[in-house]
Design a protein that fits this description.
150 residues; Lipocalin; 4-stranded antiparallel β-sheet; 6-stranded antiparallel β-sheet; 10 strands
């Protein structure tokens, strides 16, 4: 019994300290959300499946991609951000979904230093990663980085 309690304590401590993060304010989160590639993971091969969000208000909305390096599908959507919530307007299904969201500064997984969590995400996973230093306004840098996997 003592051994099991010790293992439980070690596992709990490991889970709590496995990755440091700091949540950003709602106003900072809104600016970090926009014009950035948000990936659920960095692919390791050209066949790895990944999900990508881009929120681009100057183009009228956003895009969600379900893809590999060479093949995939996309969905265009409109969105509004208010405080700590995103309202997605999904045009194909004519539905609206509102979810709170958070952005945290994190230390990985590499090369990422931002984490976006959308608990009620209408598409794909609920956790995505991005990079603060990204200046990829049109998505070209992401495509170039993915091509390097070949």
């Amino acid at each position: 019994m003592r051994t099991m309690l010790g293992l439980l304590a070690v596992a709990t401590l490991a889970a709590c300290s496995s990755q440091s993060s700091t949540q950003v304010s709602a106003s900072d989160a809104r600016s970090l959300l926009i014009d950035r590639n948000w990936l659920d993971k960095m692919p390791e091969t050209d066949r790895d499946k990944l999900h990508v969000y881009r929120f681009v208000p100057n183009m009228g909305g956003g895009v969600f991609q379900d893809r590999t390096l060479y093949k995939g599908t996309f969905e265009l959507f409109s969105f509004k951000v208010r405080d700590n919530a995103i309202t997605f307007k999904l045009h194909e299904t004519k539905t609206e979904v509102t979810s709170v969201y958070t952005i945290e500064k994190v230390d990985g997984p590499k090369p990422f230093d931002l984490k976006l969590t959308i608990p009620d995400d209408p598409r794909g996973p609920k956790v995505y990663y991005g990079m603060r230093a990204e200046t990829d306004r049109d998505g070209a840098a992401l495509e170039q980085r993915l091509q390097q996997l070949r």
